[in-house]
């Protein structure tokens, strides 16, 4: 190891270090500074004092509380539901041979399509206008229900569409991970269980589930993190003015504070972003401690 | 006795058949759920404006498909411009990223220098930093540099990815040391060794990273929305949002759907061509969901 080698190593790293320094390390420090600067003004870049006022403002802002509520409902509904459906689909997919590859390809499609674009299609499927009740209401009418405006109507209807679309969007990733986890379970275990005459439900509960539990757990953690950061799905369905639609999420609140009609307050945005990550961090820690007891590695 | 066995076997065969049928029905149901929005967007995009608006009850097919919506999608809104912007953004960002991460991964995998392990640990720690925390300052930085509504402003913050450096480093590190020593004896420079030996060997991983980055770039919405308000710099996602909110001067849903089809098709083709690479790549490094 000589001087020339040292220099060369750092030279190869230099571009990466510069970019990361400017756009990750510095902003990470800066966001905390912003969050404590009171009365920060974007235009003049001045502030009055240092303290916790930004946090207190955000925590008392009805828009933030609405966003917090929406995000929690979204997380609590979509994370368990999408994981369970993905598990069912993967088990089914793993048990068939015909059209398996075709179905895998189809299930993966939403991953590669633009969320905003397909969101627009969902909006049209669910929207009720003067010209048409829309397709969702046509289906409801077959069961003698409706019509309901899912996009501009009651809160629970809007939340239903948001949850439905979110599950539709996150499913490809979960199905992909679980299918490959299931495929990698050693067949010997199944054969042994079959020789013993174990019922298939018991095999699933006693062999399959424990064997793939690390992957299920991985999906639950990434699912929680992803759902807490929900934003573009809501924009796709309800437009950019999410506060007016009562459908804002925490991340949406951060961006609205930063930019847009209500923007220009990076301090509030920073405080909200840090609050969000305090929540995500805590939940991830809780998840980790639960997994220690229930996951078999 | 034999009769009894027959009965049990027949019963279990029937049961298996029922389970199989139910499985296929459920899987097909989900496949239809996934495909339906795509079908609906294609279908609506070929219905004429007047036919679509005359349907109080939506119909599931059309007898008179038309391409007029595709014409108005390109003439009514600057769709070609959004498309081109996204193309430039995707190509330049991906190319720059490769130019940054390949040397970095090489340095971590092959070169020996002081402080390497420390820097590598710091890089790994950065993987845990969510984008939402740093985007606020990046917005201010780009604004202060006067780079709003410019390609530089769009591209610069997404040029590095610690995760891809890590993925590539792991792959580089699997190449046996003997190859490197042999190349050194032959007097090959490190740079030549990287481009002539390591990169070709690791081509599958490099292709995977490129595809994942292209998908990410094509679908990015949040950063472009913050940094551009001039439609001349809109990417497809922002273009779609703009079409939705200000549209074609009227509620022209068939034309919107034509625009949606146009911007969805490139990635779907990319996926169908590189199906295995995309799925393997996402299961190794996917972060969405």
Descriptive overview:
Chain A contains twelve helices and two strands; from the N terminus they run αββααααααααααα. Chain A is mainly alpha-helical and 297 residues long. Chain A has one domain: MetI-like (MetI-like fold, Orthogonal Bundle), CATH 1.10.3720. In chain A, α2 crosses α12 and α3 packs parallel to α7. The model of chain A has no long low-confidence stretch (mean pLDDT 85). By secondary structure, chain B is mainly alpha-helical. Chain B has two domains: 44 residues; 210 residues, Orthogonal Bundle (MetI-like fold). Helix content of chain B is 76%, strand content 0%. Chain B contains 15 helices and no strands. Chain B starts with a helix and ends with a helix.
Number of strands of chain A: 2
* CATH class call of the largest domain in chain B: Mainly Alpha
Write the H/E string of chain B, N to C. HHHHHHHHHHHHHHH
Shape of chain A: globular
N-to-C SSE series of chain A? HEEHHHHHHHHHHH
> What is the CATH-assigned architecture of chain A?
Orthogonal Bundle
Annotation, overall tally of beta strands of chain B: 0
Kindly, what is the distance between the CA atoms of the first and last residues of chain B, rounded to a whole number of angstroms? Answer: 56 Å
- Which blocks of ≥5 consecutive residues of chain B have pLDDT under 50? none
What percentage of residues of chain B falls in helices of 4 or more residues?
A: over 70%
CATH structural fold name of the largest domain in chain B: MetI-like fold
Rg for CA atoms of chain A: 24 Å
CATH homologous superfamily caption of the largest domain in chain B = MetI-like
Give keywords.
heterodimer, A: 297 residues, mainly alpha, MetI-like fold, two-stranded antiparallel sheet, 12 helices, 73% helix, B: 289 residues, 0% strand, flat
Provide a brief overview of the structure:
Chain A is mainly α and 297 residues long. Helix content of chain A is 73%, strand content 1%. Chain A has a two-stranded antiparallel ribbon with strand order 1-2.
């Amino acid at each position: 190891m000589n001087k020339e080698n040292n220099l060369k190593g750092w030279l190869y790293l230099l571009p990466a270090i510069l970019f990361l320094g400017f756009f990750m390390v510095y902003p990470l420090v800066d966001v905390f500074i912003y969050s404590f600067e009171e009365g920060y003004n974007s235009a003049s870049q001045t502030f009055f004092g240092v303290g916790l006022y930004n946090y207190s403002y955000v925590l008392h802002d009805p828009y933030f509380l609405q966003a917090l509520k929406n995000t929690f409902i979204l997380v609590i509904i979509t994370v368990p539901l999408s994981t369970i459906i993905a598990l069912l689909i993967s088990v089914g997919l793993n048990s068939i041979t015909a059209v398996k590859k075709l179905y895998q390809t189809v299930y993966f499609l939403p991953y590669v399509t633009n969320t905003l674009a397909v969101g627009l299609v969902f909006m049209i499927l669910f929207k009720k206008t003067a010209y048409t009740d829309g397709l969702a209401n046509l289906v409801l009418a077959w069961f003698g229900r409706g019509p309901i405006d899912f996009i501009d109507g009651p809160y629970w209807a809007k939340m239903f569409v948001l949850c439905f679309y979110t599950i539709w969007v996150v499913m490809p990733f979960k199905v992909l991970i679980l299918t490959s986890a299931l495929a990698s379970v050693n067949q010997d275990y199944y054969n042994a269980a079959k020789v013993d005459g174990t019922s298939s439900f018991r095999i699933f509960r006693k062999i399959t589930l424990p064997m793939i539990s690390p992957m299920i757990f991985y999906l639950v953690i990434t699912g929680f993190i992803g759902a807490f950061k929900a934003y573009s799905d809501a924009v796709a369905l309800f437009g950019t003015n999410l506060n007016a639609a009562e459908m804002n999420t925490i991340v949406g609140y951060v961006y609205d504070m930063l930019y847009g009609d209500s923007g220009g307050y990076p301090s509030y945005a920073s405080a909200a972003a840090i609050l969000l990550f305090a929540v995500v961090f805590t939940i991830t820690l809780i998840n980790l401690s639960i997994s220690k007891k229930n996951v078999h590695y | 006795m034999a009769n009894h066995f027959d009965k049990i076997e027949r019963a279990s065969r029937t049961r298996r058949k029922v389970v199989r049928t139910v499985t296929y029905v459920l899987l097909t149901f989900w496949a239809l759920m996934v495909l339906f929005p795509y079908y609906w967007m294609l279908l609506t995009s070929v219905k004429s404006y007047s036919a679509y608006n005359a349907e109080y009850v939506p119909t599931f097919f059309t007898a008179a498909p038309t391409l007029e919506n595709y014409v108005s999608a390109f003439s009514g809104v600057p769709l070609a411009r959004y498309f081109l912007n996204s193309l430039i953004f995707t190509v330049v960002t991906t190319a720059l990223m490769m130019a940054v991460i390949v040397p970095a991964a090489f340095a971590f995998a092959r070169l020996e220098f002081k402080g390497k392990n420390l820097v590598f640990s710091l890089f790994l720690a950065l993987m845990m930093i969510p984008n939402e925390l740093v985007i606020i300052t990046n917005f201010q930085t780009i604004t202060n540099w006067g780079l709003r509504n410019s390609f530089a402003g769009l591209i610069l913050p997404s040029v590095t990815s610690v995760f891809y450096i890590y993925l590539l480093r792991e792959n580089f590190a699997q190449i046996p040391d003997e190859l490197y020593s042999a190349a050194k004896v032959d007097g090959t420079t490190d740079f030549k060794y990287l481009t002539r030996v390591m990169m070709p060997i690791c081509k599958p991983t490099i292709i995977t990273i490129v595809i994942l980055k292209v998908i990410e770039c094509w679908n990015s919405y949040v950063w472009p929305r913050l940094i551009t308000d001039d439609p001349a710099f809109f990417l497809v996602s922002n273009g779609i949002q703009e079409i939705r909110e200000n549209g074609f001067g009227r509620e022209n849903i068939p034309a919107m759907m034509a625009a949606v089809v146009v911007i969805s098709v490139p990635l779907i083709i990319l996926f169908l061509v590189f199906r295995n690479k995309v799925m393997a790549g996402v299961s190794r490094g996917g972060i969405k969901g």
